[in-house]
Structure to design on (804 residues):
DNA sequence: TCATAAACGAGACGGTACGTCTCGTCTTGTG
DNA sequence: CACAAGACGAGACGTACCGTCTCGTTTATGA
């Protein structure tokens, strides 16, 4: 009878309350049990919203994650501006480090990545989210180019990737510890590579 | 009453055949359906071994993956020696690229990583495997140091990480495409950083 | 503050149209899917009336059936008058037979009976309806008594019951086929019993 | 992996205990809540057998009823032999009466009939059961024919139908009360009709 | 004729039961 | 008599329908 998905037509009052409760419960469940432990039933119980309603609005566990990601995406992200490329990249790497290791954020971040690796819907959300972040972070490189720290034509996104990839690699692939030193080293590598003109488009 | 787990006491004849069949089936299932699609039932059916037997010996899906990983770890890995650091790192990055994108290997590699991220047993196997690879790959950096391409004290493992991390990052985190150009760029970044002495221990 | 149920205060125009549409849709759904397949949602969709309205006015699926029965009860019923008891009873049995086997009426009749067996509201409606029919049919027996075909004091209702019960029995209990021969035999039995004075009050 | 339905290959021990528990629970639930109130969940809870197991073995609520019916069919049924047709038919009618009105049996019997009317599986079971009963009861008529109480060629099954149909009719169709008098009258009608030769094949 | 209350349209939610899918454990009957 | 095969327990998934609630919108109807 209805046109689209529930929650899109009358997004006020109860509907909004329900959505908020479920989102919050999703994040909490992810932080506690990780992606594999995220269940619709668990979220429903925790949020006080009925199972059926969660299925109606979020369809499945991945839908929950996708929605939670949109919530996360809405949060502002402070693009650093320290004055030089090294400092900026270091700041970005440290932000990522925090996202991966902070007791509160870490499990959620990991869950997001795992979800994306196993669900197309979650992947879409995560990738959109990250694309936006990458785009924001690119400003750092563009400023560096303007200052003459890096050659024109430098691939800003690639610089950022080099700066943060080793952190993700350690967390998700090799399971090695990550710390500030690791973040700084990765950032430094990226800065050097950018300066050397290795990362031009 | 046996001491250890089944399959450890009489590792000949049928026991060995069963193990081989299950390992092969596991890899095939991983290649076809990925990590999320790996089920004990599926492996049992494909291998012709009974469900119960699989549970007895491998305990759960992650156990299957851990075992399959050991199989993969046994395969020889050709450490490149092209004569200079850039070439060696590029060769390594391209090997990793193949492992991630090859139609046959890709799904299995991805499954291994996902499994490790969600199961302690799989993680142990994968991390041991990668540690060994990293150790082998370190040889190229040590040779570069000996040739004077990089300063003494360069952290060999870190160089390799910088060289391959962007590939994993793209595949597992941002879902961006990976190609030879990406591999080469990542390798070049690592070489530059190593030369610049940013990656000393 | 309304007095009674909706539809009682302003029974004109739209209200009447809604009622008619729902009744018709109910009968059609019953004919198509039977009692077990009758859903408020289905009736609402078919009638073009909104779910909520159906619930408001008819309360639940049984309410729909009860209402549809009242509609059926309003239809005139031709009490036969063939001149003798045998012929009258046979005519009645054949009417019942049609009601049970006719492609259009059969499913609805069966649905009514099943509904009555599972819902007090539907039962009330059906029993009232049948009581009226039984009363009308009793005229046949009374005429027979007046003609001397059956002894005074014959229980008219019981005669009719004996004449039609085997048909219902076959349809609802044993699932055996019913045809004109079965109807005629049942009617004949009732006539014989009535004549023999077995069915006096 | 298995050939047929569960419970057919290893019908001993636990399997048998499970079946017995479920059957008993089914009958109890039917007696308490009737057909409409029979739920797989309820039976599972009452029997102490897990939901999933019930679904595996009985498929759905109708499967439960079909199985319970087979259980009922196994119970011996005392075909009366009073010496004359009237007495025999009266005894049969009274047996049916008990089955319909006894506080313990009544609800179950009604549930069986309702189930049969709404489920092909239950219908098969019930019809097979009743066919067997009808066949047994036919002996009564055959003896009467042998004694000369009824003409040769009398349709034994039809006689029994006439004798019991009014009881079912009252219970399932008109909702009228049934008592011993009603049973006796129905039996008497059948006897008269049989004697009159109305029920020859 | 026109204000007003009745009735309806619409969307969302809580709730019960259904039937399915894996996983992992237990138990039976057979080689 | 061990163990392979069969059956079960456990829990989550996703669906259908029921019935309720809260809004807003239309439309009879009588003053």
């Amino acid at each position: 009878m209805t046109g689209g998905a529930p929650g899109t037509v009358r997004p006020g009052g109860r509907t909004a309350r329900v959505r908020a409760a479920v989102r919050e419960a999703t994040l909490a469940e992810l932080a506690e049990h990780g992606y594999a432990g995220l269940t619709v039933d668990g979220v429903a119980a925790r949020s006080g919203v009925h199972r059926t309603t969660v299925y109606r609005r979020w369809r499945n566990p991945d839908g929950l994650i996708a929605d939670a990601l949109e919530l996360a995406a809405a949060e502002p992200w402070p693009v650093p501006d320290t004055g030089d490329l090294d400092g900026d990249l270091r700041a970005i790497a440290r932000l990522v480090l925090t996202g991966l290791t902070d007791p509160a954020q870490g499990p959620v971040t990991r869950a997001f990545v795992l979800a994306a690796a196993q669900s197309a819907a979650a992947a879409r959300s995560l990738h959109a989210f990250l694309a936006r972040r990458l785009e924001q972070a690119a400003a750092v490189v563009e400023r560096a180019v303007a200052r003459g720290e890096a050659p024109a034509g430098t691939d800003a996104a690639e610089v950022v990737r080099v700066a943060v990839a080793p952190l993700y690699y350690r967390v998700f692939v090799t399971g090695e510890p990550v710390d500030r030193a690791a973040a700084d080293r990765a950032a430094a590598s990226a800065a050097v590579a950018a300066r050397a003109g290795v990362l031009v488009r």
